[in-house]
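--- STAGE predict ---
source: upstream dedup step, 1 unique chain passed
mode: sequence only
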Amino acid sequence: MIILLSPAKTLDFSTSVPALTTSKPAYAHKADMLANELRKLQPEQLAQLMDISPKLAQLNHERFQLWGSPTNVEAMRPAVLAYKGDVYEGLKADSMGPDDLHFAQQHLRILSGMYGILRPLDLIQPYRLEMGTSFGIGQYKDLYAFWNADITMSLAEDLRNEAQPFIVNLASQEYSKSVDFKALNCRVIAPEFKDGKDGTYRMISFFAKRARGLMASWLIRNRVSNADDLVSFAAEGYVFNPRLSTPTKPVFTRG
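--- STAGE serialize ---
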């Protein structure tokens, strides 16, 4: 089993983290290539490119200027502890023990516009670059084209090491588009989380994001390896809803 998550826009590089055996991103050299191009842009250009406020543009301009510097290298931290936001609030990686993190390192992958694909304990520098950003580099028209082959190849290698090669896709649509799932030729399960009101169920983004983190955490902490066991997931009121589900899209509802 391989679990896919999206990254988060919000980062935490100030809270102390425990001593861990960390790793280096597989495509750190390509992240350096992107940073070298992005540092050429002025804050106003970053604001337009990323559709962000002048304040955020200035912050990320400074981040790209410092990319690879001793200051940044010293501040690097494991991806799973650097990302914050709804998904990672649900994941609660900071409460995982060494065995949990070891399992996560083997089975959890985070898709990233800056790094392509990350293991939880890969050290990252602070950045902002969403996968859907219309930023071309070299022969590649956008980040999907830049990362697709690398991400897909990396996942193919991971799946070859799995006794049961299937993917639990908990990433957003924006990030899922960076993967060529057809080329992987394996079972892909994409859970959905919906909240009910007056007999009608719909996805509410804030709650669904948190639920994706909750499921990833449950899969890791329970060492799930069988695809059929996903229907046993239950957290914060969400339970499997067989009436709304299909084999590739199990739906979990509450309310």
